[in-house]
Amino acid sequence: MGKLSNWLGELKNLEQLDLSHNQLQGSIPNLIGNLSNLHSLNLRNNQLSGTLTEQHFWKLSNLEYLYIDSNSFRLDVSSNWTPPFQLRYLFMGSCHIGPTFPAWLQSQKDLQYLDLSNASISSSIPNWFWNISSNLEYLILSHNQLQGKLPNSNIGEFLPNLYFLSFSGNGITGTIPDSIGHLTSLGVIDFSSNTLTGSIPSTINNCFSLNVLDLGNNNLSGMIPKSLDQLQQLKSLHLNHNKLSGELPSSLRNLTGLDILDLSYNNLSGQIPAWIGTAFPNLVILNLRSNMFSGRLPSLLSNLSSLHVLDLAQNNLMGEIPVTLVELKAMDQDHNMSISSLYDNRSSYRYEERLIVITKGLTLEYTRTLSLVVSIDLSDNNLSGEFPEGITKLFGLMLLNLSMNHIIGRIPESISKLRQLSSLDLSSNKLFGSIPSSMSLLSSLGYLNLSNNNFSDKIPFIGQMSTFTESAFAGNPNLCGAPLVKKCQDEGKDKSVEDKIDSGFVDQWFYLSIGLGFAVGILVPYFV
Question: Among 9, 123, 172, 515, which is least packed, fewest CB within 10 Å?
Answer without folding.
Answer: 515
